[in-house]
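TL;DR need structure tokens for one chain.
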Amino acid sequence: MPQPIIRIDNIVKRYGPLTVLDGLSMDVMPGEKLALIGPSGSGKTTILRILMTLETISGGHIQIDGDQLYHMKKGADLVAADEAHLRRMRSKIGMVFQHFNLFPHKCVLDNVTLAPMLTQGVKRGDAEKRAMELLDMVGMADKARSVPAQLSGGQKQRAAIARALALSPKIMLFDEVTSALDPELVEEVLNVMKHLAAETDMTMLLVTHEMGFAHDFADRVLFFDRGKIVEQGKPEEIFRNPKQERTQTFLRKIIAAGHRV
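>> reply
TL;DR here they are.
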């Protein structure tokens, strides 16, 4: 049996007196496509930020590809990870953010090539060749020399996806990547993600309020509420026949608001 590429074991995340994640455990298998759904404040985005080491954990353990994320071996002991260990672990993971996070003063091509050159020592020529391949894949090759201010929201998000892919991560995290877009621009970003899901063996975790897309994209859907997994299963099970009353209530409200599931 293959080992999980992500193993989350009893993690806790607190902000002062507020507990956001409370003893959360979950495994993600290599190549699996997961959709994380649930009300705002349920802990979905916090999970992605913890995996990307943008947030620390208050307790528990996380393994990425067989290695501890926040801990490392020192002799026979397991100690807190140092910055070099975190950097090495971070290189396995790419993240696309809700608000793009592109460098505004750099053109699209430079946004995509910067990280491979700085963190992996890739030569500029090789980095630019790979970047143009990725920009072509997301339909942005003709915008390579444009700066973010010259792009639509959908174009910025596609450029951000190419930038995350440039480091060849094993795991891709998508945090509400369409929620900042005008409705008519959502589909162009979702189409790129569908292509990625279908054509690559990357493990992908998606936090979204686009239930129809979650249904079409995911191998497994996890419904979160108050920092816990309330229910999980195949998209058809969760969206057509949810077993937990809390899941049923959430989906009823989503449908009432006019969203497709």
